[in-house]
Specification:
- Helix 3 (about 55-65) packs parallel to helix 4, helix 10 packs antiparallel against helix 11 (about 310-340) and helix 10 crosses helix 21.
- The strands form 6 sheets. Strands 11, 12, 13, 14, 15, 16 and 17 form a 7-stranded mixed β-sheet that branches. The chain has a 5-stranded parallel β-sheet with strand order 2-1-3-4-5, sandwiched between helices. A 5-stranded parallel β-sheet has the order 7-6-8-9-10, with helices on both faces.
- The chain is α/β, with parallel strands linked by helices.
- The protein contains 30 helices and 32 strands.
- The longest helix is centred in the N-terminal third of the chain and has 72 residues, at about 235-305.
């Protein structure tokens, strides 16, 4: 036994040395400073502590988690305290020391420690029933066992014994010693009864018998005996055999007691943890609600003001406010996400989505933040079955984090997202997602910490790059939940790659990417001086059935082109200043291929691009569908006089409904009123749930937008009361409580859907469209979109102000000339364009010609504002092309308003006809 002593008490130290030397114990005394290192080195069986600051020392050693080197059990800690120092005793006990001896009361310390390490078995709580028809045997056995403080009961036959066992001894008997042959009920029958009784079956039975042989052994062990002792027997042998069984029973009882104690303790700790968890969740939910409520007002009103007429400085200030608000919201979302993940409260969806669309949409979200020295590329294995089943929201979140980091830390070079096929069968597909960048990279020390929450590679307070340090921790947990593992490889100064693989279920649906059969086999010349992007583009072209030829310069392309080549796809940044020379050389050779530019951003000056000779352009990262659409357009719509782009359009329409907004916050009330009114709806405010219930009883509403936390009556209680008399009205939670438990509570109360604050207008439009019955609309005024194209600022502002006043539900955007308008049309898709004729860059005539050449804009209304006479060639051309109205400047707004009503009433009628 090796003992380590840590003592600063002279008297105790002297006493301990004397005791240990007297008993020849191996011991070691230590000074206070290095005790942890020395304990680890010496590997003692026991640590004896006699220190003034007992609590800190004991607590530190116990936390150190030291194990005895042979048995791998926790080292034993013995505290010795002065009997006149109650604080030391209290400190030792509080620190967790279970072995505390008082000094000088302690005596025979070595023996006490030995008892702790190897305690002698105490049989005083053991009970043995002896069954024999011989009184002599009963006396001998009882006297032998009583020497060890064992409680002994006796019975002269099996019947009496079984009665005792099922009454007096049923809870306390530890062992039965029985003769085999007895009157009334023999030992075999008794043993069978014991083993068939569920409350006694665990009790060992030892037979005492003068019979021997194989037949006897089969008989007693067949009845369920644990052991047998042959008569006549020696007391020593008998005691040894019995004590072995009793020790086993004692150990089992102690283990059961320990298990019961630990189970009770675990249940208590579990209950405590659940209470703590609930308190934590409630705190986070309340904090989320309190923070999101003002952010809702900031983001909502800022967005609305940005849609009004502002000067450049005002717009820049408001954009900064909105950006800061969104950053704060992103931080809140990250904190809530990491909390939900750590609490195992993240539920993954399993829905169908197009993984190729998802990847490119993520790229669209980050590419505006990329500088002109960096290229964003997508290398997509185009044999992939792109329609899959999984959680698109969480996959988008992970990829968005990876790409955002790549953009943040890459000042020049390439950012590449690769999606490769790992494995595929009839039902499943495994995809590997990798995000490469040529940014600042990380060293080994930084790589060890990047997945830790609230940790960044550069942790200094003056770090150059912002962020919460939560994104990567959340991403790794989400990838893990989806069945993958987020890994990273990086080198300082050379870049980083994050990658993970996930197995998805394949969808029956599949994308179709085909070009005209007449183009299959045609050669496509690719001009790109970057091998990575040229290979990606060549791969896309090759998969479409074209034959790619990659050239790194204009000169190489001109050397290889021939009269049969009809298509060139070129990176616009290659020899950017020499494109005029390139097109002149083509003209001299009498070659007339379609040339499609690949650009990093939307190009404003279409006219110059057209003059250079380009037939159209597509944006980086290049989508396969964009290449197909562009090829189809340039080859089979040759009458197009304007340059073609790959911008997509969408239109959202809403009808006019009576909507009850249940909200106690004044700012959010005002925001909801303005937002819904601008959409053309009729909102009504209720300040709490009780008022809302009364209003629903007395008034007709098409929808209720319900907050959760309110005074008097909260949203859940109000919903339950409304559902008791109206089961049809759509009730949508519009709340800052965003935990899954909050959503579940909303649905359980009877709500139809859930919108998180800060509220995005499109989300409101979507739920109105999804849940409101079109036949219940009290009017069919749409939230129309109007584009005003005017180069004079004063006229532009006046038009916006008058239309806003007359048509508060309309969405208005402005452009200074036809060039800017043509860019906006693709994303905004206006229902009506009000435009001047004479403007720089692109005039109104060319804008309308472009508009009328597009089938998807066939129903777009056009009002011309001009001071030119009727016989002016531009006015005549416009009449030929076809416009709705031509209004002379200066015009009265009443006249213009009449024209607007005239045009949009046709759309109203069309909407009514389609809804009946």
């Amino acid at each position: 036994m090796k003992i380590f002593v840590l003592s600063d008490n002279y008297k105790i130290s002297k006493y301990l040395k004397k005791e240990f030397q007297k008993k020849f114990v191996d011991f070691y005394f230590s000074e206070k400073d290095n005790y942890l290192t020395e304990i680890k080195k010496e590997k003692p069986d026991v640590i004896v502590i006699a220190m003034n600051d007992m609590y800190d020392i004991v607590h530190r050693i116990m936390k150190y988690d030291i194990l005895v080197h042979k048995s791998a059990r926790s080292v034993i800690i013995v505290s010795i305290v002065d009997e006149n120092n109650p604080k030391a005793y209290s400190d030792a006990k509080r620190a967790g020391s279970s072995n505390i001896f008082l000094f000088p009361s302690t005596y025979d310390l070595v023996e006490k420690i030995h008892q702790i390490i190897d305690p002698k078995t105490d049989y005083s709580d053991s009970t043995v029933l002896v069954v024999d028809d011989s009184k002599l045997i009963l006396k001998i056995v009882a006297e032998a066992l009583q020497k060890f403080d064992v409680k002994v009961y006796s019975a002269s036959n099996g019947a009496i014994a079984y009665e005792l066992l099922t009454t007096t001894l049923i809870e306390s008997v530890d062992l039965v010693v029985t003769d085999l042959n007895m009157p009334e009920m023999d030992g075999k029958e008794l043993c069978k009864k014991i083993k068939s009784n569920s409350k006694l079956t665990h009790v060992p039975v030892i037979f005492l018998t003068s019979l021997s042989g194989k037949e006897t052994e089969l008989k007693i062990f067949g009845a369920g005996a644990s052991d047998f002792i042959a008569k006549p027997f020696s007391e020593k042998l008998f005691i040894s055999r019995v004590l072995v069984h009793l020790e086993s029973r004692i150990v089992n009882k102690n283990l059961n007691d320990i298990v019961k104690l630990r189970t009770k303790r675990l249940l208590r700790e579990k209950e405590r943890a659940e209470i703590t968890g609930r308190a934590k969740s409630e705190f986070l939910a309340n904090m989320s609600h309190e923070i999101r409520t003002p952010i809702n007002g900031i983001v909502g009103f800022t967005t609305m003001v940005l849609e009004t007429s502002l000067d450049d400085e005002q717009r820049e200030f408001l954009k900064t406010v909105k950006s800061c608000s969104e950053t704060l919201l992103s931080l809140i979302n990250d904190i809530l996400d990491i909390t939900k993940i750590e609490s195992d409260k993240v539920d993954l969806e399993r829905i169908e989505f197009d993984v190729e669309d998802l990847v490119y949409n993520v790229c669209d979200m980050v590419k505006t933040k990329i500088n002109d020295k960096t290229s964003l590329l997508v290398d997509f294995d185009h044999d992939i079955h792109s329609f899959i089943k999984g959680d698109p929201t969480r996959l988008r979140q992970v990829l968005m984090n990876q790409l955002s980091n790549a953009v943040k830390f890459t000042e020049e070079g390439n950012i590449i997202i690769k999606i490769k096929l790992v494995y595929e069968d009839e039902k499943n597909i495994q995809l590997k997602f990798s995000v490469f960048d040529t940014g600042i990279g990380m060293d080994d020390k930084q790589l060890k910490n990047i997945f830790k929450p609230f940790t960044q590679a550069d942790g200094s307070t003056t770090r150059k790059y912002g962020g919460t340090g939560l994104g990567l921790a959340i991403s790794r947990r989400l990838v893990d939940l989806m069945g993958g593992n987020l890994e990273v490889v990086s080198s300082a100064g050379k870049g980083t790659v994050f990658f993970f693989s996930i197995i998805f279920e394949k969808s029956v649906k599949q994308s179709k990417f085909e070009i005209s059969k007449s183009l299959i086999g045609e050669r496509c010349i690719i001009i790109d001086d970057t091998s990575i992007s040229s290979n990606i583009l060549a791969n896309i072209v090759n998969k479409l059935g074209l034959e790619p030829l990659v050239c790194t310069s204009h000169e190489e392309a001109l050397e290889n082109i021939n009269r049969d080549d009809k298509l060139i796809i070129a990176d616009f940044s290659v020899n950017k200043e020499n494109w005029e020379f390139f097109f002149e050389e083509l003209k001299e050779k009498s070659f007339n291929p379609f040339v499609i530019a690949v650009v990093s951003e939307i190009l404003g000056n279409y006219k110059k691009m057209k003059k250079k000779g380009f037939s159209g352009y597509i944006l980086k990262p290049v989508r396969r569908v964009a290449v197909i659409n562009m090829i189809q357009r340039v080859f089979f719509k040759r009458d197009q006089k304007q340059i073609i782009t790959d911008q997509q359009v969408s239109l959202q329409e809403t009808l006019c409904y009576n909507i009850l907004v249940v909200e106690d916050n004044k700012v959010n009330q005002m925001l909801a009123m303005k937002m819904l009114s601008k959409m053309g709806h009729s909102p009504v405010i209720a300040e709490n749930g009780k008022i809302a219930v009364d209003k629903v009883k007395n008034e007709k509403f098409d929808m209720i937008l319900m907050d959760m936390q309110m005074p008097v009556m909260d949203g859940l209680e109000a919903t339950r009361k409304i559902r008791s008399f109206d089961t049809d009205i759509p009730i949508i939670a519009m709340t800052a409580n965003v935990f899954q438990s909050d959503k579940d509570a909303c649905f359980e109360a009877g709500m139809n859907s859930f919108i998180a604050k800060p509220v995005i207008r499109d989300n409101i439009r979507n739920v109105i469209k999804d849940f409101c019955d079109v036949h219940n609309a009290h009017s069919v005024t749409e939230s129309y979109k109007i584009l005003i194209v005017e180069d004079e600022k004063i006229i532009r502002r006046a038009l916006v102000a008058n239309i806003n006043k007359a048509f508060p539900a309309f969405t208005i955007k402005t452009a200074e000339d036809g060039m800017e308008a043509s860019v906006l049309i693709g994303s905004f898709k206006p229902d009506l364009i009000i435009t001047d004729i004479s403007m720089p860059n692109m005039d109104g005539l060319n804008l309308i010609k472009y508009l009328k050449s597009k089938r998807r804009y066939a129903n777009t209304g056009v009002i011309i504002l001009t001071s030119l006479p009727d016989d002016d060639p531009k006015v005549v051309s416009l009449k030929i092309v076809g416009v709705d109205f031509i209004e002379r400047k200066p015009c009265k707004f009443s006249s213009l308003k009449s024209h607007i009503n005239n045009i949009l009433s046709r759309k109203d009628k069309h909407r009514i006809d389609n809804s009946i």
